[in-house]
Design goal:
Length: 296
């Protein structure tokens, strides 16, 4: 594949940024893939694992003459970094991001970039892990993942098409939603599960529980609570940015638990069996669709 960009700049080279760096290099998409990081130890780690072709602590060095910029930092840091890089971006530069909340973020980033002639398109690839850092990055992270694009009435159509093609090139399936729709959909699929996993860890492994409790927690508990090992700082930013939808989904989930509690109290074995059977059917259908690349 011929190179599409002279310089791609990654603002943050953790799991997502590092995986994009590996992918861009393997696909030969750019002459240079530069990573911007904030700590010297991150510079050394990025170079050691080969996540980017060049890495720097300098905002100017990272973003000067970039054709494409991808914001891969925690959501709260994106507007701060957007303002810092703006003096070094040329008009027409294409910017996208991997932020997991969108309504407020898109408004703020558009207000920063668009008046300067920088083209911005919000995006969120639904891929990741509880693990962090470039050491865990790999080029196939985005294969068959859904990437939600969040254009607005201010989005440049050509920029939207180029961002769509970019995410599809790295292996994603794309879908377009509004920023508000994004936050509601992702709240159910990602934010609520993290809240539930966090609550379950506190409930089961809290200091007031007997020490033997931890010893009897096996693979079921491990798998159910996996995401609770994610970055606390990142998740603090996410829940603060999407607090309203998250609270509404917690309340809706409590109602679901209350209905399940009522079913259990009824001691009706057929109704109880139906609850578990329907859940298995729904989950298996979802797994089949994922394995088929959402083509069915």
């Amino acid at each position: 594949m011929s190179r599409l960009y002279h310089k791609i700049a990654l603002a943050g080279v953790g799991l997502l940024g590092g995986s994009l760096g590996h992918c861009f290099q393997s696909l030969n998409l750019a002459d240079e893939v530069t990573g911007y990081v904030r700590r010297q130890c991150s510079v050394e780690e990025c170079l050691r694992v080969g996540a980017v072709t060049r890495v720097t602590l300098s905002v100017e060095e990272a973003f000067q003459d970039a054709d494409l910029v991808i914001l891969c930092t925690p959501v709260a840091q994106m507007p701060i970094l957007a303002r810092a890089m703006l003096p070094f971006l040329k008009p027409g530069t294409l910017v996208t991001d991997v932020g997991s909340t969108k309504l407020e973020l898109v408004k703020e980033l558009e207000s920063i970039y668009l008046p300067a002639g920088v083209r911005y398109v919000g995006a969120h690839p639904m891929a990741g892990s509880e693990k962090t850092g470039p050491i865990h990055a790999y080029g196939d992270l985005f294969r068959n993942a859904i990437c939600l694009l969040t254009p607005t009435e201010r989005t440049d159509p050509d920029a939207l098409q180029r961002v769509k093609e970019l995410w599809e090139t790295v292996g994603c399936k794309t879908a377009q939603v509004t920023p508000a729709e994004h936050d509601q959909l992702v709240c159910r699929a990602s934010h609520l599960p993290h809240i539930l996993a966090t609550a379950l860890v506190h409930h089961v492994l809290g200091e007031e529980k007997p020490k033997i409790q931890a010893k009897v927690c096996a693979s079921g508990f491990r798998d159910t609570t996996r995401v609770a090992s994610g970055s606390p700082e990142m998740w603090r930013d996410i829940v603060l940015n999407n607090r309203g939808p998250i609270i509404r989904e917690i309340e809706a989930y409590i109602e679901t638990l209350q209905r399940l509690k009522t079913t259990l109290n009824s001691e009706n074995s057929e109704d109880i069996l139906d609850v578990f059977s329907r859940a298995r059917e729904l989950r298996n259908d979802w797994l089949d669709q994922r394995s088929n690349g959402w083509n069915s």
